[in-house]
Amino acid sequence: MGKRILLLGAPGAGKGTQSKQLAEKYDIEHVTTGDALRANKDMETEYGTPRSFMEKGELVPDAVVNEIVRAALEDADGYVLDGYPRNLSQAEYLTEITDLDAVLYLKVAESELVERLTGRRVCSECGTNFHVKFNQPEEEGVCDECGSELAQRDDDTEETVRERLSVFEENTAPVIEHYRDEGVLVEIDGEQTPDEVFDDIAATIES
Length: 207
Ligand code: AP5
Ligand code: MG
Ligand code: ZN
Hints:
alpha/beta, five-stranded parallel sheet, binds ligand 1, binds zinc ion
C-alpha cells in the first residue's frame, strides 16, 4: 500500500511545491482541496460557489471540502494531502475516513509567507509554481515544464493574503496543536531551500 502523508502548513509554506515532488517520488496521489476548488470555482452548492469564499480568503464550507477529500482518498493507493484539514471539524472527519502514516508541519515565519505569496506565479496549464525572486522560470512569465503562460492567483493580493493568514491562525493552528498533542506531528523547517525541505521530509517519511 502507498504511503499516506498529511502535509500541514500556512498559506505559502510550500505545501504545493513539496507535494508535487512527493507524489512523484513515492508514486502516490497529490490530493489538494485548493486545486480541486480552483478547478470548480463556479460550481453551485447550497452554500454558494467556492469562488465566493476563496476570493475573500475565507474557508469553503466543510460539507463541500469533506466530500472532495472523501471521494479522492477512496480512489487513491497512497496520497499526500495538501490544504486539508483546515479546522478541527475537518480533522475529525479525516480521522473517520482514513489512517495516516506521517503528519508533517512545514514551519515558516509570517513575514516570509507574505513575500512568497505575493511573488508567486503559477502555470495556467500544468499548475507548476514559480516565484519572481525565489524560484524564477528560465524565461520570465513562461512555464519551464510546459511552455504555457504564468499567472498570479486571484487570492495572492496582499490584502487577501493577510486574510488567509488570519484564517489560518484562527482555524488551522488548532489543527496543528491537535496533532502535536497526539504525539504524531513532525515539524520541518520550511525556510530552507525547496530541495533541503524535501530531503528533510523524505528522511522523516523513511525513518
Ligand atoms: P490553497 O490552495 O490550499 O492555498 P493555501 O493553503 O493558502 O496555500 P498555498 O497554495 O497558497 O501555499 P502552499 O503552501 O501550497 O505554497 P506553495 O508551494 O505554492 O487554498 C486556497 C483557498 O481554497 C483557501 O483560502 C480556501 O478558500 C479554499 N480551501 C482550500 N482548502 C480548503 C479546506 N480544506 N477547507 C475550506 N476551504 C479550503 O509556495 C508558495 C510560493 O513560495 C511559491 O511561489 C513557491 O515557488 C515559493 N516557495 C515554495 N517553497 C519555497 C522555499 N523553500 N523557499 C522559497 N520559496 C519557496
Ligand atoms: Mg498550494
Ligand atoms: Zn506548465
